């Protein structure tokens, strides 16, 4: 009976309604203990009921003994069963919890190490912010390094470059062929910037200034070195600003953001220019005319000026030059242009010899003049921007460079010509991936610069944030709104005065007739030359995209010992402008302007709070100046 009772009492233990899986929540050991206690309590209650049914009140002592014995046996069996089934689960849960805690501890340690490294790097950069490294300073055994360095930056103009300390880097060696670099510590960042103003003059003496880089910055520069060599081999002008690589394109400087992937391979035999590895913040190479509105440097210095000419008769006193008409036999190669310029020839750029102006054909005269200037600029590798094909400004996306634009053009061209859809999709994926990578790299670079400025130069950080200018509101971006508003402003009719008020002072006599006739005199060559000299370099271009430099520097090369050559465009301009002056009108192609609304004050949603700034064509600027000179 004891065994039967025991077997009957085990069935509830095996088939007892246990808790659902949702109730088995951590901590696991607390739930297991509670479950065991509930199971034992249920077995005891069932055991009591069974014993009451069998024995009743006849054998109370035997009932108590059997109850104690069965309780012990059932408890041992339940514990053994729980150990066999739940002990592996408990061990697995414990191992998982231990692994999770170890991983979280490792991540915390790694984050802490990274934070400490960033703090150390920031402090190192801050400590080196007023330092420079000088390369190429000749070395002498009896030298006073501090005195020699101070003599390099001796200047009476500008803030002084106070040198706190200067010492050679590295141990002296008899086998060393190059002088050891000099570590220069200045009194502050302002003194370092004052010293950098002398870098251009020092480069002419083969002395180069570079920033004092931390080991992390040096590793970044070493990793970017293949890109520097590739840009140098491609004929571009790369330079370093600390560990960041920049490229000068005309008068525009952009940071070179390499596309993720393997570094570019250097050309065979390509080597960097001397001192290129130590190019400092102000060590950029002189700019070359890369854009149409940046020709001033090319003509102000000893560079070759723009050669342009026409079939007019040269002014009196100028030397006779042989002309070469490129419009009829120019093959597109530069060899003919170079040979013609070497022989002292004037290159003809179209037939704008004022015959249209003499015939009164103003539109044709201005069109041939514009075409001639463009052709001459293109023949001398100085293309002018065409107003009819203006590229949309990407001020909001500076990472969208020439590579992205070329990929976009390839995708559109392949889609238009009905290419293979698979190839079109592949090109689209390549285009979007390139734009995505460049955008991510640009944003990371911006964030890095902001963090660097925040730790090293808070003033530059806040200046960068305050320099962010807001765009025109979305409600005012439609061009039609501005067109109507500007048209109303231009056609504003002021009330006419019926009669002049009575004057209490004597009226001055009218101007003599001779002076009035002088105002109607034709525009002279001297007035046009004076107007050309009054044009400014580096100004924005008008709708046609012709910068003022193309008009100012249309001269022949200056021979040694000879007076400055005459402007070869001036006679053609005299004929064209005189025709417009006599007709009393100018063609719409040169009478337009680019208008930019500039917000002054008040609400940005009100057009009355904007000042329209108009940029006219250069030819109209010196035309007005020529008329002013007559007055």
From TrEMBL:
Organism superkingdom: Eukaryota
Extent of Polar residues compositional bias: 1-19
Region described as Disordered: 1-30, 254-294
Biased composition (Low complexity): 267-292
Name of the protein: Endonuclease/exonuclease/phosphatase domain-containing protein
Organism of derivation: Coccomyxa subellipsoidea (strain C-169) (Green microalga)
């Amino acid at each position: 009976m004891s065994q039967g009772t025991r077997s009957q009492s085990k069935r509830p233990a095996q088939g007892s309604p246990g808790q659902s899986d949702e109730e088995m929540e951590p901590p696991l050991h607390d739930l297991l203990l509670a479950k065991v206690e509930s199971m034992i309590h249920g077995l005891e209650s069932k055991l009591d009921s069974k014993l009451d049914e069998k024995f009743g009140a006849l054998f109370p002592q035997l009932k108590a003994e059997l109850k104690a014995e069965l309780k012990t046996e059932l408890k041992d069996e339940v514990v053994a069963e729980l150990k066999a089934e739940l002990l592996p689960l408990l061990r697995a849960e414990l191992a998982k919890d231990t692994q999770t805690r170890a991983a979280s501890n490792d991540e915390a340690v790694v984050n802490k190490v990274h934070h400490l490294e960033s703090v150390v790097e920031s402090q190192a950069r801050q400590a080196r912010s007023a330092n420079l490294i000088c390369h190429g300073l000749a070395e002498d055994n009896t030298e006073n390094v501090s005195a020699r360095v101070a003599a390099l930056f001796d200047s009476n103009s500008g803030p002084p470059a106070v040198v706190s300390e200067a010492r050679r880097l590295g141990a002296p060696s008899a086998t060393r062929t190059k002088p050891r670099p000099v570590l220069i510590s200045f009194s502050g960042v302002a003194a370092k910037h004052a010293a950098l103003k002398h870098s251009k003059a020092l480069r002419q003496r083969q002395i180069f200034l570079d920033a004092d880089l931390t080991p992390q910055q040096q590793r970044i520069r070493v990793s970017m070195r293949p890109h520097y060599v590739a840009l140098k081999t491609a004929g571009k002008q790369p330079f370093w600003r600390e560990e960041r690589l920049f490229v000068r394109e005309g008068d525009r400087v952009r940071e070179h953001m390499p596309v993720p992937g393997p570094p570019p391979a250097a050309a065979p035999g390509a080597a960097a220019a001397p001192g290129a590895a130590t190019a400092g913040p102000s060590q950029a190479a002189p700019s070359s005319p890369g854009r149409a509105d940046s020709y001033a440097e090319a003509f102000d210095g000893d560079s070759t000026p723009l050669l342009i000419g026409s079939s007019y008769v040269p002014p009196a006193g100028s030397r006779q030059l042989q002309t070469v008409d490129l419009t009829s036999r120019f093959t597109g190669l530069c060899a003919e242009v170079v040979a013609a310029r070497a022989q002292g020839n004037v290159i003809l750029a179209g037939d704008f010899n004022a015959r249209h102006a003499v015939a009164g054909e103003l539109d044709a005269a201005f069109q041939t003049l514009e075409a001639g200037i463009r052709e001459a600029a293109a023949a001398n590798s100085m293309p002018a921007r065409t107003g009819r094909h203006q590229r949309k400004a990407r001020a909001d996306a500076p990472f969208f460079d020439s590579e992205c634009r070329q990929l976009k053009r390839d995708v559109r061209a392949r889609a238009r010509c009905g290419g293979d859809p698979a190839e079109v999709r592949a090109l689209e994926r390549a285009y979007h991936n390139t734009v995505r990578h460049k955008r991510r790299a640009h944003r990371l670079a911006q964030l890095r610069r902001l963090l660097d400025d925040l730790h090293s130069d808070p003033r530059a950080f806040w200046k960068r944030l305050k320099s962010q200018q807001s765009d025109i509101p979305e409600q005012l971006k439609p061009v039609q709104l501005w067109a109507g508003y500007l048209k109303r402003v231009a056609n504003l009719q002021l009330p006419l005065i019926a009669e002049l008020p009575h004057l209490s002072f004597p009226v001055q006599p009218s101007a003599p007739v001779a002076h009035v006739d002088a105002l109607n005199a034709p525009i002279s060559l001297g007035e046009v030359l004076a107007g050309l000299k009054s044009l400014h370099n580096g100004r924005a271009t008008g709708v046609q995209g012709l910068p003022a430099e193309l008009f100012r520097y249309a001269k022949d090369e200056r021979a040694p010992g000879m007076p400055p050559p005459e402007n070869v465009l001036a006679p053609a301009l005299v004929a064209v402008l005189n025709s417009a002056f006599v007709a009393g009108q100018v063609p719409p192609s040169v009478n337009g302007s680019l208008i930019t609304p500039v917000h002054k004050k008040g609400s940005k949603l009100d057009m009355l709070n904007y000042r329209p700034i108009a940029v006219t064509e250069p030819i109209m600027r010196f035309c007005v100046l020529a008329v002013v000179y007559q007055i």
